[in-house]
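In response to the reviewer comment on reproducibility (Comment 2.3), we provide here a single inverse folding case reported in full, input and output, so that an independent group could reproduce the run without further information from us. The structure tokens appear first.
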């Protein structure tokens, strides 16, 4: 049985990232609104864009708390945020939908998602992803670290100083590996399974680009922030 030791730096890194992740939660009122009344497709879509917009703001605040992030080149900071925004949205969605909810709430939310103008072909991979995340039963620290690793992906488009991002990501990867052994001692492959989800996440974000095109066709409106981060013309 591997004895897990955390260095003082790793303990500090874990605390900072977990505190930031806890602090920057999505306001529950959006999910609450989605649960309330029966909305039209248009209203559902509007609620989702509101949820996405607040999630981007939450993501930016969270990212600023990642140790070392603000010391990166300014343009690289933007490139990392833009490159990870959709993946972070799906990770956060998975975590929100896998939360213990009162009976029937998940079904209502799923029905709302189905009735928001998203074509069936995207719904399936999206819910498969949510299910595969749910099956991992990640602890909060793992969720926070996985989101951080997604943000600190060196090979995003337009990142100039990739080694600087790699150095930051490596620290978080090492910390996540230890956390996985600590929280899932019976599953030696757990860390590898977690990282495998990041690959699934990239596929989802390609679907998202196609979703956007289909929404454009039905001239759905997006907020200025979403247009910026989702590359909507
Ligand atoms: C955490 C921030 O997540 C979002 O904003 C997602 C929410 N998404 C969910 O599956 C979802 C739905 C209801 C919940 F209660 C929940 F927790 C997650 C995914 C998607 C449907 C693709 C979407 C979002 N915003 C959009 C805006 C326009 C069109 C589509 C979306």
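Designed residues, in position order:
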């Amino acid at each position: 049985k591997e004895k897990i030791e955390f260095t003082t730096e790793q303990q500090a890194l874990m605390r900072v990232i977990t505190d930031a992740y806890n602090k920057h939660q999505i306001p529950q009122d959006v999910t609450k609104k989605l649960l309330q009344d029966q909305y039209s497709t248009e209203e559902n879509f509007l609620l989702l864009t509101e949820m996405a917009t607040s999630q981007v703001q939450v993501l930016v605040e969270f990212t600023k708390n990642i140790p070392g992030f603000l010391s990166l080149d300014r343009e690289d900071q933007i490139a990392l945020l833009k490159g990870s925004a959709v993946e972070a949205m799906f990770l956060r969605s998975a975590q929100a939908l896998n939360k213990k909810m009162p009976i029937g709430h998940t079904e209502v939310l799923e029905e709302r998602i189905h009735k928001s103008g998203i074509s069936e072909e995207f719904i399936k991979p999206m819910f498969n992803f949510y299910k595969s995340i749910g099956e991992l039963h990640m602890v909060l620290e793992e969720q926070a670290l996985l989101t951080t690793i997604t943000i600190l992906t060196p090979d995003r488009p337009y990142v100039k100083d990739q080694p600087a991002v790699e150095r930051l990501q490596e620290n978080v990867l090492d910390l996540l590996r230890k956390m996985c052994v600590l929280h899932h001692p019976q599953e030696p492959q757990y860390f590898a399974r977690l990282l495998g989800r990041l690959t699934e996440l990239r596929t989802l974000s390609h679907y998202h680009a196609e979703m956007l095109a289909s929404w454009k066709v039905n001239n759905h409106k997006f907020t200025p922030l979403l247009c910026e981060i989702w590359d909507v013309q």
